[in-house]
Amino acid sequence: MSRSWVWLAGAAVGSALWCVSCPASAQAFDWVPESRTGGKLLLTGGVSTLEGSGGGGMATWATTTGYGAEDGIGGNVHATWVNLPDYELRSWGAAVGLWDRVELSVARQEFDTGDTGAALGLGQGFTFTQDIVGVKVRLLGDAVYDQAGWMPQVAVGLQHKTNDQGAIITAVGGKDDEGTEAYVAATKLFLAQSLLVSGTVRWTDANQTGLLGFGGDRNDDLEPQFEGSVGYLLSRNLVVGAEVRTKPDNLGFAGEDDWLDVYAAWAINKHLSVTAAWVDLGSIATFENQRGLYLSLQAGF
């Protein structure tokens, strides 16, 4: 068994990148319109992004994590592994949702260069580590219960990221080893159509989401970037979909591409779920065609 699989299994946590999607009908959610305080509906508790916030694997959503409703608290822990031809990305963390209004999250990412580290002059298995602290606040709307109109659930948030390789970031042209991002997210769940649609605008200067620092010789300004998600529920427990995430291109030594994924997720129950995805992360630090497998586990309440 490889080191990655040992690490993932040993984390003993779970994920469903998209267990928040919509069912083939309102009945598939056991939907009772009058009940908003007894806990969120099945598959609407939120999932963990690579950065720890509630949403999809790459894109943050306006939903708050966990299954606590207006009078409750919910939370989760997650572990995620992304295997690419020349790199490996690992992420784990925890998040809590308070009264379906506020979300607090923490995550740690490890970007392992493996054999590529030697080719880049960094050393075999050189690893960038990034810590992320986030807060999200729901402003208006309800992605599930506001079915009478087109108003989505809308939330705003902040994420502060700190990278542990300041010297290397400076050497490749990065301006800083930490940064703060703001975003606005809107998410709508169409129960009758089994469809979830979400869009987020994030103001960021992060290089590879901060794994290679913030700002660069090409650009050092915060710029709006888009994160989009769509999910379709094939059955009560199985959802498929896709995501896109645009990114700035700040570093002169290496171009940066947008991210894409196509996923399938299985919600075992409200407390445990698993997701597999094919991801295309484009070019990373001069190495092209970084496409591979995403696997995430999440456990929560």
From TrEMBL:
InterPro entries in the record: DUF3034
Record bears the keyword Signal: yes
Keywords: Signal
Signal peptide extent: 1-26
Keyword Signal appears in the UniProt entry: yes
Designated name of the protein: DUF3034 domain-containing protein
Species assigned in the record: Brevundimonas subvibrioides (strain ATCC 15264 / DSM 4735 / LMG 14903 / NBRC 16000 / CB 81)
